[in-house]
Amino acid sequence: MGKALIIGCGGVASVAIHKCCQNSEVFKEIMIASRTKSKCDDLKNKLDGGRTIIHTAQIDADNTEEVIELINKFKPDIVMNLALPYQDLAIMEACLATKTNYLDTANYEPLDTAKFEYKWQWDYREKFEKAGITALLGSGFDPGVTSVFSAYAQKHYFDEINYIDILDANAGDHGYPFATNFNPEINIREVSAKGSYWEDGRWIETEPMEIKRVYNFPQIGEKDMYLLHHEELESLALNIKGIKRIRFFMTFGQSYLTHLKCLENVGMTSIEPIEYQGMKIVPLQFLKAVLPDPASLGPRTKGKTNIGCIFQGKKDGKDVKYYVYNVCDHEECYREVGSQAISYTTGVPAMIGAMMIMNGTWNKKGVFNMEEFDPDPFMDALNEWGLPWIEDFDPLLVD
Ligand code: NDP
């Protein structure tokens, strides 16, 4: 059917690329372009021989001109930004200049401020609409599948949804005392930031990890989970009818939290540059360099993830509860695509989102979050491409 330019070649991109190659009816040709070209070539060598034609290139995606040049050369139907959130705007600019569709899995955040919000990308709505192209924001699991779950709940089971709790549990064990499951810099910026949730039309801010709950997750068991700010809260609070409160919880083990606290206390998670032996270094970037590469966790990680949403609201005047979630097994993911489940649960929806745009199933022009499209074809594709979901109409609630 068409061509995709995939930017980035880390944990998430590697899964998405495997999945694009499994789906060669849609992804006839792909270009893998990243900062370190050897990683792209290694993956191409592993996957070559299938029906998807693979090209590789070196690119600095912070440089819009370089991205424009590569788009003009390869002429993709979509650019999948699977590098980092810092590159979102540079790549969106390149897509606008070349009238090419855009997709990412994380919303823009400036390199020097640990703050993410949709404003910067939503500002492109009119420009994308006028250019006749689509930008699909946050096509990972959370955001991404959690947003599609919300649209699905709204479409099929509720007249109004009053409460949403998004629960992200990882019971995987990689055997390291401390490592992050996706890009360490982005991960640590996210979990060390203040928490927040939306209630009665306003944001309530909390200290980092201030709110803790224990939840008994299906197929995983009881876990401690902590309230975080998360980007899909911002768009769901606007796009889902009748919302009174929306929260996001993620599980963390005690060892992870103790290490994080210690690293914070000694200044290693700071993004303020410091002077070291005559040069400027950012402590968090240095920390990333000494931590295990998330892509290397695949062969070591055992256990499962469970990510889903609990909805409460009304249908035909009656109270309704609904929980929809996916359980993913780290070792099965590794057997299939050589990655752990966090990369898998993000890379699969990235491929599906691109497919929805490329085959015209989702064809609105402008800048959109995932819950703004018909969820049904995406939900079917999750079952087909490795992330089946489970429904529970009488779930345990979070207090
Ligand atoms: P990795 O660090 O493993 O990979 C990032 C890749 O981007 C690397 O290949 C890196 O190159 C490349 N890159 C970085 N900067 C540039 C640049 N300027 N130009 C070109 N390439 C660049 O990260 P992950 O794969 O773990 O995460 C990827 C994205 O997925 C992140 O944005 C993350 O926030 C998001 N994510 C989303 C989730 C969701 O559910 N929505 C969940 C998990 C992650 P190099 O190899 O040289 O370092």
Question: How would you summarize the topology of this molecule?
Answer:
Layout: E1 2-7, H1 11-22, E2 27-34, H2 37-47, E3 53-58, H3 64-74, E4 78-81, H4 88-98, E5 101-104, H5 119-122, H6 125-131, E6 134-137, H7 145-156, E7 160-170, H8 184-191, E8 195-199, E9 202-206, E10 212-217, E11 221-227, H9 231-239, E12 245-251, H10 254-265, E13 274-276, E14 279-281, H11 283-290, E15 304-315, E16 318-329, H12 330-337, H13 341-358, E17 366-369, H14 375-384, E18 390-392
Parallel strand pairs: 1-2, 1-4, 2-3, 4-5, 5-6, 6-17, 7-12
Antiparallel strand pairs: 7-15, 8-9, 8-12, 10-11, 11-12, 13-14, 15-16, 16-18
Helix pairs in contact: 1-13, 3-4, 7-14, 13-14
| Bound ligands, named by name, code or SMILES | NADPH dihydro-nicotinamide-adenine-dinucleotide phosphate
Strand residue percentage: 25-35%
Supply the helix-strand structural class: alpha/beta
Total strands: the figure is: 18
Uncertain residue ranges: none
Distance between the termini: 48 Å
The number of distinct helices, counting runs of at least 4 residues, comes to 14
Mean pLDDT: 96
Report the major sheet: 9 strands, mixed
Helix content: 25-40%
- Categorize the overall geometry: globular
Instruction: Report the C-alpha radius of gyration, rounded.
Output: 20 Å
Q: Could you walk me through the main structural features you see in this protein, from its secondary elements to its overall organization?
A:
The chain has 14 helices and 18 strands. It is of the alpha/beta class and 399 residues long. It starts with a strand and ends in a 7-residue tail after the last strand. The model has no long low-confidence stretch (mean pLDDT 96). Helix content is 35%, strand content 28%. NADPH dihydro-nicotinamide-adenine-dinucleotide phosphate binds next to α1 and α13.
